[in-house]
Amino acid sequence: NAGVMQNPRHLVRRRGQEARLRCSPMKGHSHVYWYRQLPEEGLKFMVYLQKENIIDESGMPKERFSAEFPKEGPSILRIQQVVRGDSAAYFCASSPTGLAGGEQYFGPGTRLTVT
Amino acid sequence: GQQVMQIPQYQHVQEGEDFTTYCNSSTTLSNIQWYKQRPGGHPVFLIQLVKSGEVKKQKRLTFQFGEAKKNSSLHITATQTTDVGTYFCAGYMDSNYQLIWGAGTKLIIKP
Question: B86: how many CB neighbours lie within 10 A of its CB?
């Protein structure tokens, strides 16, 4: 059973470009969470999605950031017009249940560098 | 806002010494989870504590959840080089989907 997959693992973008980060949850998991991690810091919740629905996007900036989890295919975190401050590791996690208290399984992360 | 404070930020130990990290929440937690992240890696789930005063052990690791469900600790006995990494606590507030993460404690083994 493959774990959570994320691609690309490393992404370099110039300021003003768009970044698309993909996440395929574990088989059988329909709940996906995106987190952002700056060096030497903890994880900051961004958004929680179920298939075709955004459940909680309270941690995601209202501008330039969007997320989706279509019926078919991976979840996508999209950052438009990237700025240097967007440089971070972005982790996706999945769980079989969306109830508070479930274990979350993390992908390897995408390290975004904005030059 | 809701916060989980974790201390210390770093702990340097000699191999064989013990290690402890502490988490404190500003509000009551419905449960708390602990994760380990190796350098350059991703968080890996270690354990979940749900009950007030709960204590769980995994070999050399002991996890505690406070009586008021506002604090938790992780203690490692006789550290080994394989224990190196950053240990995070993360808690769920009642009726909330968000895991609120501590900033992590980095365990460093002195050469």
Answer: 24
| Confidence band, pLDDT 50/70/90 cuts, at residue B72 | very high
Average pLDDT for runs of 10 along chain A of length 115: 90 98 94 92 90 90 95 95 97 82 89 97
HEC letters along A41-104: CCEEEEEEEECCEEEECCCCCCCCEEEECCCCCCEEEEECCCCHHHCEEEEEEEECCCCCCCCC
Q: Which residues of A touch B93 (CB under 8 A)?
A: 100
**Residue B72 tokens, joined:** 């938790």
Q: How far is A41 from chain B (nearest CA, A)?
A: 5
- Give the DSSP letter string of B2-44: --EEEE-SEEEEETTS-EEEEEEESS-EEEEEEEEE-TTS--E
CA dihedral A90, A96, A102, A107 (to 10 degrees): -20
Q: State the CB neighbour count (10 A cutoff) for residue B75.
A: 15
Task: Decide if A91 and B42 are in contact by the 8 Å CB cutoff.
Answer: yes
Measured between CA atoms, how close is B54 to chain A, in angstroms?
Answer: 15
